[in-house]
Amino acid sequence: MGSLVLQNVSYYYNDTPVIDGLNLTVGKNEIVCLLGASGCGKTTTLKAIAGVLEAKQGRIFVDGQLVSDEQTFTPPEHRNIGMMFQDYALFPHLTVASNIAFGLDKATKLQKQTRVNEMLKLVHLEDCGDRYPHQLSGGQQQRVAIARALAYKPSLLLLDEPFSNIDPLVRFELIADIRRIIKAAKVSAVFVTHSKEEAFAFSDTLAIMSSGKIVQHGTPEQLFSMPSSKVVAEFLGQGIYLSAKVLTAAEYQTPLGVVKSFNEHSDNSNIGQIYIRPHHIELHKHNGQTSAAYTAKILSQRFIGSAYIYSLIIAEQEIEVAAQYGQSFDINESVIIKIKPHTVNFFKL
Ligand SMILES: Nc1ncnc2c1ncn2[C@@H]1O[C@H](COP(=O)(O)OP(=O)(O)OP(=O)(O)O)[C@@H](O)[C@H]1O
C-alpha cells in the first residue's frame, strides 16, 4: 500500500460535490502534485487528507492506517501529517529554533535540541537558530517552515501553494532546495500549485484534477506524451486540434497532410482529432514553392533570447511556434507548415 491512499473520496459544500469519488495512491517518498483549474477541489482534497474537514464518503489511509471512512475519523493531530502553506505561519514571537521545536512537545529538552540542530543543518540555516522570523528572507522563512513540518518525522507532508509568495527570481532555487530536503527526509508529499512550471520542477508525478476527480496520474513525461483525455492534453500544453482520419496504424490524414506517428493507433475508431503541440510544427521559408505546401501567415513575433517565437493561425486556431536556430520570418510572411512525425495523441469524436 502507498504512503497515502484515497479511495472513492467525496466531499460536498451545501449538496454541491467538490470532490467526487476521487482515487489517488501516493507511493513511498513520492512527491505528487495536484494540478487543475481554479476551483476544481485541490485545497479541499488537501483538507480532507489532513482531517481539517471530514470526507463525506470513501476511505483515506495514511501510511497504511485507516484515518477516514464512514465509521472512522482520526483528528488532524493524530494523522502524522506535516503541513506547509504559502504564508509560512511561523510564530513571530518565537526564535527559529523554538519554531522548529514547537511540535515536539513529548520530547526531552536534549532530544528537542538535537532534532532542532539536525533540522537546521538539513535546511542550511545552522547559524539562524536564535533569529526571529522577521530577521529572515521569505525563502529562509519557508525553509524554517519546512524544517518545522519535518521535525516530528511525519509520514506525509502536505504543501499548499508554498512558493507563491516567493520572489520569482529565487523561486526555482528554493523549489530545488525544498525538493532536496524532502527527498533527504524520505517523506512522501502532496503539493498543490497553479503553476505547471513549479509542478514540473518540484514533483515526481502529477495528478490532474477535473470536476472533483483525478483524471490522470503519472510522470510529467507520461502525461505530456500520452494524455488520456483532452482535459489533460490542454492542461499541459498550448496546442491545436487537427481533424484526423486514420489511414494506417501509424498515419493520419489531416488538413495539413499526412501526419506520421511513432505509436500505433490502438482505438477502433477511424475519425477523430489529433492534438498538435508547438514543438511538433516546423516552419519553413516559402521560397516561391507552391506544390502540396500547407501555409500560414505570421501574425506576430517575440524574441526569447535563444530564438524567435511566432504566432500564427493553423486550422483556425492560434498557436505560438518557436523558429529553429537562425531562422527568422517577417510579420505577414506566408510560411510552409510541416508536422514532424511524433507520438500522436488521437482523440476519437
Ligand atoms: N467553505 C466553503 N463553502 C462553500 N463552498 C466552498 C467552500 N470552500 C470552497 N468552496 C468551493 O469548493 C470548490 C473547490 O474549492 P477549492 O478551494 O478546493 O478549489 P481549488 O482547486 O483549491 O481552487 P484554487 O486553485 O482556486 O485554490 C470551489 O468551487 C469553491 O468555491
What's the CATH H-level superfamily name of the largest domain?
P-loop containing nucleotide triphosphate hydrolases
Oligomeric state of shown chains: single chain
CATH class of the largest domain: Alpha Beta
Present as ligands are:
adenosine-5'-triphosphate
Low-pLDDT residue intervals, each spanning 5 or more residues: none
Rounded radius of gyration (Å): 25 Å
Question: How would you characterize the largest beta sheet?
Answer: 6 strands, mixed
Number of strands: 20
* Tally of helical segments: 8
Shape: globular
The N- and C-terminal alpha carbons lie at a distance of 37 Å
Task: Examine the secondary-structure arrangement and name the CATH architecture of the largest domain.
Answer: 3-Layer(aba) Sandwich
How do the strands of the widest beta sheet line up side by side? 6-7-8-3-9-10
Structural class: alpha+beta
The helical percent reads 10-25%
Q: How many domains, in number, for the residues?
A: 2
CATH topology of the largest domain: Rossmann fold
Order of helices and strands: EEEHEEEHHHEHEHEEHHEEEEEEEEEE
Q: State mean pLDDT (0 to 100 scale).
A: 90
